[in-house]
Amino acid sequence: xxxxxxxxxxxxxxxxxxxxxxxxxxxxxxxxxxxxxxxxxxxxxxxxxxxxxxxxxxxxxxxxxxxxxxxxxxxxxxxxxxxxxxxxxxxxxxxxxxxxxxxxxxxxxxxxxxxxxxxxxxxxxxxxxxxxxxxxxxxxxxxxxxxxxxxxxxxxxxxxxxxxxxxxxxxxxxxxxxxxxxxxxxxxxxxxxxxxxxxxxxxxxxxxxxxxxxxxxxxxxxxxxxxxxxxxxxxxxxxxxxxxxxxxxxxxxxxxxxxxxxxxxxxxxxxxxxxxxxxxxxxxxx
Length: 286
Prior knowledge:
By secondary structure, this protein is mostly beta strands. The protein contains no helices and 24 strands.
């Protein structure tokens, strides 16, 4: 963004103080109260600024935010804003990032991730922390993640086209009813991982929790490990799995191939679904 008008060290309050402005560089500003401080704008940069009022960034086309702070009162702060880059910032308010196309976050900490990243497209996340709240990333698509720490509940539900690297996710019901998901070099800890999802590939991942990877179609595991407490894994799934080390219990996979170094038990009972032709073996067996 070039030829920007500079506004520096100013304080704004009330309703819509910067409504419909364009081509601004904001430095050290504060949005104190009221609603919709920056709305219906174009080409806005903000540095070293603080936002306290509600809905401060709505309907902004082209935005860059760096070293900024969004307080608890700035709930639902950034919606309907396309082509946004945010770096080195902290968010304490819930319900950020809705209905957006083109969103890039780097070195951002979100302390209340409740209902964050809903219905967003073309999202890039690098070194982001999510804490608390429920359902981050729901209904979003075309997501690339490199570096994510999250203890939010029900993360990545009803998503499409997701690629994740170097994540540590502690949750339950993650990647539920998703399509086209690949996860590399990550730790996933929580119940009901990837239930009812399609085209899921896990590479060099460590998995913990109960009843993982059930009702999953076209599931692939490459060089993955399981926590000792995992059980009832792969129920009603079609799966190709290369498991390193031990898996405690495999239950009623539908079809495919599963190989592990050791297996505690295998449950194939009267409730298994056809074609019931999954081949389960120990590494090295013929």
